[in-house]
Design the sequence.
């Protein structure tokens, strides 16, 4: 019988480092920077002492983990602690944004060890842009002096919509010429690294749970505000992607916004002059910085533009936080970093006052700790997460 569409799980060409139990152990060690003993690992994971001993021996042999010291419990001999070796493996992340293309090289803990960025070319020469992206990736790895064999793969974050199965970007707004472009495979072929493609907002939320402000949270949403806006979602420690990989659009919540829209509104109201007219997505950042400065200096109209945005975003995240019952809301992206001093004081009280959000548990509201490169770090984190984290779906056949 022919299988019904959507019932067969798709695989990935990205190599995994070990089996499910090995990933569980590795994830547990990673989440405890101070280190865990084998006894603590057995207790935390529910695995037998013998299984933990076998797996940790393999991780030590692979150089992914190391013994970091002793912990004296007061009873019996001190226990040996295990920790991750950050320099044992690496991943590359590329963020394709309408304004800027960012490439990062991160270690096993998600720390940036190499970075490059350049303005996104206009004109729609996609093949030429990909060739430049590949050259940046190769240079980044070569200049680091790292053996390429220790690079697990390449993650790509792009604005939606995407075709996750095919690895295509599908005519994203403000990126002319990128209609149904096979970005994942083209960049993989050009660099020689296995590659993953995901939406930038999804990549950002993966970054936060891997190396950012929400590493301890199993239920969170990440609101990304850059050239465009969107939301990354995690429920029960699982990233929500949707049937096509395009979950996280916030237009239906009234929270959609772009840098261009803000600048255009400021020009229309006479807050900014015509010299700030946006001809290219990269131009909008200059107007945004000026708008934020005017608001900080007391310009009522400039402040009103930002306040209206804050209210729309606040309502949107309150609705999503209520629907998903999350414990943490993280904000980030280049536009957020510019406007955060004005946006956060409005949004945070909105969340705190929401009777549905605060009814049964506190909800943390914070800015990302990963800076403006959160989506690029997220792209690399996609690789780390796929290759190293415990993936329950890997237990399923088909």
Sequence:
């Amino acid at each position: 019988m022919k299988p019904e569409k959507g019932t067969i799980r798709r695989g990935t060409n990205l190599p995994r480092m070990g089996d499910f139990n090995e990933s569980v152990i590795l994830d547990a060690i990673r989440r405890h920077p101070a280190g865990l003993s084998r006894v603590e690992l057995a207790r935390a994971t529910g695995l037998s002492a013998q299984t933990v001993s076998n797996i940790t021996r393999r991780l030590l042999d692979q150089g992914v983990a190391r013994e970091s010291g002793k912990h004296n419990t007061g009873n019996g001999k001190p226990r040996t602690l295990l920790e991750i070796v950050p320099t044992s493996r690496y991943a590359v992340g590329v963020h394709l944004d309408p304004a800027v293309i960012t490439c990062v090289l991160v270690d096993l803990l998600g720390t940036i060890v190499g970075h490059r960025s350049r303005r996104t070319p206009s004109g729609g020469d996609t093949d030429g842009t990909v060739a430049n992206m590949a050259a940046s990736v190769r240079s980044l790895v070569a200049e680091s002096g790292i053996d390429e064999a220790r690079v697990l793969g390449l993650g790509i974050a792009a604005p939606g919509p995407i075709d996750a199965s095919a690895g295509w970007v599908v005519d994203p707004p403000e990126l002319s010429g990128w209609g149904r472009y096979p970005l994942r495979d083209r960049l993989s072929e050009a660099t020689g690294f296995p590659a993953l493609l995901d939406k930038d907002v999804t990549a950002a939320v993966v970054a936060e749970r891997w190396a950012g402000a929400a590493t301890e949270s199993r239920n969170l949403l990440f609101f990304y505000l850059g050239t465009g806006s969107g939301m990354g979602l995690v429920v029960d420690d699982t990233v929500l992607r949707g049937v096509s990989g395009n979950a996280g659009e916030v237009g239906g919540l009234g929270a959609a916004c772009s840098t261009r829209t803000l600048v255009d509104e400021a020009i229309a109201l006479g807050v900014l002059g015509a010299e700030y007219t946006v001809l290219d997505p990269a131009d909008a950042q200059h107007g945004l910085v000026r708008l934020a400065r005017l608001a900080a200096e007391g310009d009522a109209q400039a402040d009103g533009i930002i306040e209206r945005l804050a209210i729309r975003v606040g309502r949107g995240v309150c609705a999503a936080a209520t629907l998903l019952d999350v414990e943490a809301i993280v904000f980030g992206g280049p536009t957020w970093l510019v406007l955060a001093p004005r946006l956060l004081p409005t949004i945070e009280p909105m969340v705190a006052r929401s009777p549905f959000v605060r009814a049964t548990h506190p909800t943390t509201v914070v800015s990302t700790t990963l800076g403006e490169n959160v989506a690029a770090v997220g792209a690399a984190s996609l690789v780390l997460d796929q290759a190293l984290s415990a993936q329950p779906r890997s237990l399923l056949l088909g």
Remarks:
- Residues 1-13, 394-398 have pLDDT under 50 and may be disordered.
